[in-house]
């Protein structure tokens, strides 16, 4: 009997080992292993009783637990998103506060969430009535009076002319530190003094005449003023929500806006989801039920998502996919009022040397760049302002790029670095994008081959890149500028001293005088001629920047499926106008 008991116990111990080891094979089972071991050890504790009545001791039985009842999960409730429109919006936006942003990705989102005094015609990109239903100017065009329509915020609070005044003063307030505060200063009387601390809010030429009448005084007869008011630096924001929630007012649970859409969800580095604003004054015109802005600057991923039907509007196409993309009906390429350029930090050694800046600029073959790298039909640029009505772009000052390269080497020697000898390694800053990287690598090679200059490439994500560029924390930086309105001034006033866009710290008194004087000139021919002289100084005398090409917008959207989307020189496509056919 003892022998039988010994065999029984041995079998039980062996079973214990198998159960314990089996618990370590898969992660879910591992959590159950201790309980199984305790069950197997329980019979060992009863062994002494077996000696008293061995014949009556039955073999221990390990009862199996009854399987847990299977509970069928209720099918997940799939929310009906209605008509859904998905946009590849590029990098994660800096902010959703109009006073805290400065980029194109942010602009697309803000067109959905806010509406200024004017809005955008989706076909022409010209100004049309927005929050203001009408306006008129005085005889010399230096004062405009706007009549606001009966509109409310998305929480039902009425919008008044005082909201416009408060919003614009907030933008200009030095404490707000808005990166675009310089922009209204180019329009509004007294704005510059308030923003730079030499004046106060009472001196700014804006006022509420009554609850629905707003008035602004301009620094001169600016023919482009109305066209600029759609810009987010002139946005109207909810004072009551900002005072209640502080810098958390743009969170979905706190958000208040006055645009055609409201903020439903924000997942950082992923997406922003908007739904129609039922209290928007023109709510019946909104035909999209769910609007998604995807935050991704991976062009290849975005392109593949578009091909897979996960994106409806692709805002860029990878360079190596252009040829195949252009074969599709959804491919939309169009000239844009925009310039791709590099900016020099003119206060930093050795880039503070104008001859070095000229050597670098003259050495870069723009035609080879657009034909061999960007490949989308971009136009080589020597100046910052593209061809516009009444304004011709600056011409390339050489017959060919071989002559330009020879002149570049002469400037390099004058800078003190003959054949590149003694020139420090230079840095080029660019934001994350395969396209920007390829352009930077091209320029890196051009400077090495033609000037024997070494260049290090510095890549940073969008927010950090903007911060460094605005702070002047670079030597050479990639930049791009899309006109805020259709006039040469939009490309020139950002290089004035004190402008947040002037990260290169360019400062030329004659240039500043000419740009500011142009704002006071009523005669259009004289005004444009003055601006042209200013541009010539900045480019051909000071080489403050290195323009590379004028943009061609490249989008993909099936306009057989989606209506309300049109190519235009500003590449503005307000979501309010888009609908499913």
Structure description:
Helix 1 runs antiparallel to helix 3 and helix 19 packs antiparallel against helix 20. The protein has 581 residues and is α+β, with helices and mostly antiparallel strands. The N terminus is likely disordered. Strands 1, 8, 9, 10, 11, 12, 13, 14, 15, 16 and 17 form an eleven-stranded mixed β-sheet that branches. The chain has a four-stranded antiparallel β-sheet with strand order 4-5-7-6, covered by helices on one side. It has a two-stranded antiparallel sheet with strand order 2-3. The radius of gyration is 33 Å and the shape is globular. The protein folds into three domains: 55 residues; 235 residues, D-Maltodextrin-Binding Protein, domain 2; 220 residues, Dipeptide-binding Protein, Domain 3 (Dipeptide-binding Protein, domain 3). The protein is built from 20 helices and 19 strands. A hairpin with a 5-residue loop joins strand 4 and strand 5.
Count of strand segments: 19
What is the distance, rounded to the nearest whole angstrom, between the alpha carbons of the first and last residues? 88 Å
Structural class by secondary-structure content: alpha+beta
Low-pLDDT residue intervals, each spanning 5 or more residues: 1-71
In the CATH scheme, what's the topology name of the largest domain? D-Maltodextrin-Binding Protein, domain 2
Largest sheet: 11 strands, mixed
Number of helices: 20
């Amino acid at each position: 009997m003892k022998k039988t008991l010994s065999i029984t116990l041995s079998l039980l111990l062996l079973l214990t080992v198998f159960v314990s080891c089996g618990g370590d094979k898969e992660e879910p089972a591992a959590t159950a292993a201790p309980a199984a071991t305790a069950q197997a050890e329980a019979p060992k504790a009863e062994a002494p009783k077996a000696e008293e009545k061995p014949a009556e001791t039955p073999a221990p039985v390990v009862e199996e637990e009854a399987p847990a009842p299977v509970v069928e999960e209720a099918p997940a409730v799939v929310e009906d998103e209605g008509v859904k429109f998905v946009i590849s919006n590029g990098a994660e936006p800096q902010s959703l506060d109009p006073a805290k942003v400065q980029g194109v990705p942010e602009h697309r989102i803000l067109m959905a969430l806010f509406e200024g005094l004017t809005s955008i015609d989706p076909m022409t990109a010209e100004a049309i009535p927005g929050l203001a239903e009408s306006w008129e100017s005085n005889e010399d065009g230096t004062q405009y009076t706007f009549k606001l329509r009966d509109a409310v915020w998305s929480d039902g609070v009425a919008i008044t002319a005082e909201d416009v005044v408060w919003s614009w003063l907030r933008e200009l307030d030095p404490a707000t530190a808005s990166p675009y505060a310089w922009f209204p200063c180019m329009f509004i009387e007294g704005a510059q003094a308030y923003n730079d601390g030499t004046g106060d809010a009472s001196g700014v030429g804006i006022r509420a005449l009554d609850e629905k009448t707003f008035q602004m005084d301009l620094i001169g007869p600016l023919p482009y003023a109305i066209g600029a008011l759609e810009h987010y630096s002139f946005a109207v924001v909810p004072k009551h929500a900002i005072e209640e929630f502080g810098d958390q007012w743009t969170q979905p649970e706190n958000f208040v806006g006055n645009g055609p859409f409201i903020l439903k969800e924000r997942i950082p580095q992923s997406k922003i989801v908007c739904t129609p604003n039922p209290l928007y004054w023109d709510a019946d015109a909104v035909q999209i039920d769910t609007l998604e802005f995807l935050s991704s600057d991976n062009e290849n991923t975005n392109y593949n998502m578009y091909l897979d039907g996960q994106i409806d509007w692709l805002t860029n196409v990878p360079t190596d996919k252009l040829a195949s993309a252009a074969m599709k009906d959804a491919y939309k390429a169009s000239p844009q009022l925009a310039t791709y350029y590099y900016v020099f930090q003119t206060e930093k050694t050795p880039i503070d040397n104008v001859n070095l800046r000229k050597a670098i600029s003259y050495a870069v073959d723009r035609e080879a760049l657009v034909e061999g790298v960007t490949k989308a039909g971009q136009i080589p640029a020597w100046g910052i302002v593209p061809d516009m009505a009444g304004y011709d772009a600056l011409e390339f000052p050489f017959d060919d790029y071989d002559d330009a390269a020879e002149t570049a080497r002469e400037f390099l020697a004058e800078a003190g670095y003959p054949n590149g000898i003694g020139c420090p390694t230079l840095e080029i800053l660019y934001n994350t994008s395969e396209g920007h990287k390829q352009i930077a690598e091209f320029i890196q090679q051009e400077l090495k081959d033609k000037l024997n200059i070494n260049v290090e490439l510095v890549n940073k994500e969008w927010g950090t890149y903007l911060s460094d560029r605005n702070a002047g924390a670079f030597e050479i930086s990639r930049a791009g500028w899309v006109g805020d309105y259709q006039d040469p001034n939009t490309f020139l006033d950002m290089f004035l001293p004190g402008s947040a866009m002037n990260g290169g710290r360019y400062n030329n008194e004659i240039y500043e005088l000419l740009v500011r004087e142009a704002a006071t000139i009523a005669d259009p021919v004289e005004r444009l001629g003055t601006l042209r002289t200013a541009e010539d100084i900045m480019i051909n005398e000071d080489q403050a920047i290195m323009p590379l090409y004028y943009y061609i917008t490249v989008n993909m959207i099936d306009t057989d499926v989606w209506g309300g989307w049109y190519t235009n020189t500003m590449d503005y496509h307000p979501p309010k106008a888009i609908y499913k056919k």
